[in-house]
## 1
Amino acid sequence: FLVDNPDLVVTLTPPDFRHGEDVIDMQRFMLNSLQTHIQSLSHREKKFLEIAEDRIAGFGRLQDAAVMLLGANSFHELVRAINIDLPDLLDIEAARLCLEDDGKKYSSYGAHFLPADEADQLMGRKNPVFLLENSADQRVLVGLEKAHVKSLALIRLSATEKTHRGVLALGSAETDGFNPRQGTDLLSFLARVIEGCMRRWQKDSH
C-alpha cells in the first residue's frame, strides 16, 4: 500500500524499532522512501534553478541586443547590426534579416530577399515564431548557407505602409539550439524592436 501511495509515508509516525524474523522494519522503509523523495525534490529544484538562470541570462542578452539595434542610425546600420553584431550578443551562430520582394526596387544593404509570400511558406500563415530542429537543409532558404547552422528560429516581421514583410532568421550551431519546446516571448519582443527600427529607417533604402 505504501509503495503505491508514497506521499503518505511523510505523514506517518515511525514505529518503535523491533527485531524478529516476522517484523518488517518500517523505519528503514520510511527512511528510504523519504530519501528518494528528497532526492527527487532536490533534482527538480536544481532543474528549475538552471532554467531560471538561463532565462535571466537570455533576457540580459536580449536587452543588450535591443539597445544595440535601437542605436542604428540608418537602415544600412540596422541590417549590419542584425547580420553581424546580433549573433555575438545572443550567443548564436548567425542571424539574417530577410525581406520579401514586393516588386519595388530598393537597396537591401545586405538583407536577404525572399520571394513574395515566402514567409507564409516557411512558417505557416498563423505562426509568429517557428522553431526548427535539425534544420541545416533549410538554412539556404534564409541566406545562411555559408553559416554553420543546425537549427533555426524564424520570427515574422509584419509589414506596414513604410516597411516590407519579412523574417528574422536566427541560426544555432546546435541541432536543438532552437526547438519547439522553447518559449518564444523573448524572440517576439526582439521582432517588435526590429519592426520599430525598420519603420524608422527602411524609408532610407528606397
## 2
Amino acid sequence: MTQSSTQSQSPFTSKRVLALATVTLLAGWSLSAIAPESEPVEPLRELASEAKTYEIDLSHSGVLFKVRHLGLSWCWGRFTSFEGSLTYDEKSAGCSIEMSIDPASLDTASEGRDKHVTGADFLNVAQFPEAGFRSTKVTAGEDGALQIQGVFSLHGVEKEVELEAQILGQGDKGERFGERIGFEGSLRINRRDFGITTYPDSAVGDEVEVIIAIEGKLK
C-alpha cells in the first residue's frame, strides 16, 4: 500500500519540480533582459579650479580715504605706493585679495598736512612703516557683489574689517593690455581702534572710510 501510494505521487512531484525550474529560468532570463549588467562607475574627479590671479596695476589703481574735518566736510587723501594681487574665480565667485600699503606715500594735496599726518600725531610712519589688507572670507552676492571679511593693518595694529566690494568687469583687452579685471570696495575703520587718538572727533573725525580700487593684470 505504501509503495503504491509513493509511485502514484511521483509523476505529480516530477511535473511540479519541472514547472518550478522552468519558471525560475524564465524569470532569470527576463530580469537579465530588462536590467542589463551595469557599467562600472568611474570615480568622481575633482573639478579643475578656474581661479585666476591678477597682479595690481599701480598706474590704474588707487587706495583712497576720507575723514571728516571740523565736522563740516570731507578731507580726502590717497596712498601712492602699494602692491598686491587679486585672485578671482568667475564660475564660483570665489575671491581673495592681499595687498601691502606704504603709509609714507600719503598724499592729501598739501605738503604741510602730509608731513603732519605721517608724523607722530597720526600715522607715525617712522615707527610703523607698514599697512595693508588681506582677505579671510568671501561671500558672493548678485551681479558681482562681494562681502569680503579680512584683516586691515595700520599703525602697528591689526583689526578685522568687512570690505563691501564688486567685480566691475573682467576680460581680455587685447595684445597691449592682456587679460584684466576691475575691482572696487570700501571699508570703514575707527582710527582710535588703531591707536590714533590725538585730536577730538570735532576736529578730525574718528571714522575713516578707505576705498580700494584695483585694475589687475593676469599674471
## 3
Amino acid sequence: PDRSFVGTIRPRIENDVGFRVPGKVAKRLVEVGQVVDIGQPLALLDDADLKLQAEQAEAELRAAAGVQAQAQASENRAAELRTKGWSTDAQMDQAKAAAAEARGRVIRAERSVELTKNNLSYATLRSDARGVVMATSAEPGQVVASGQGVVRNARIAEKEVVVAVPETLVARAEGGEAHVSLWSDPEKKYVAKLRELAPAAD
C-alpha cells in the first residue's frame, strides 16, 4: 500500500563564508533573508593594517630594485676588467654571486607585494555563489580569525527532502520513484531522486 511520509526540505548546499585573513569587522553589508549574487560583497574588514603592509612591501621592492641595479653594474664592471686581465676569477665570482643574490631579493620582494595585495583584496568578503543569507555570526567591531564563519549562505540550487523510511520499505526506497508535495501547495507534485540512503535513522 502507498504510504505518505512527512519530511524536511532544506537547501542541498549550505555553507559558512569567512574572511581569508584575520581582522576587525568594519561593516556587515547583508541581512538574514537577503538574496545575494556571486561576487556580491557581504562584509568588510578594517583594512588599515593591510594597507600599511602593502606599502611596506612596495618600499622593500623599490629598495631591492636599487640594490639589484648596483649589483648588476658591479658585475658588468668586473666582467670588463676580467677581459682586460685587471681582475681575478675570485673577484668575478664574487660579483656574480652578489648580482644573483640581488635578483633573488627582488623576486622575493615582488612575491611579497603580490601577497599583500591579495590580503588587501581579502578584506572584502564576497559571496561565492548565488544564495540566501541564512545567518550572520559577526558584527561590526568584532575581531574574527581567518576562516571563521561570518555569513551562512544557502545556495539557490537543488533542494533535498529528508525523510525517515521504515526498515520494511528500504528495498522499495532504493529502486522506487518518489514525489514531493508542499503543505503550501499540496496539488503540485515534484519528482524526487534518491541521492543518499543513510544506514541509520537520524
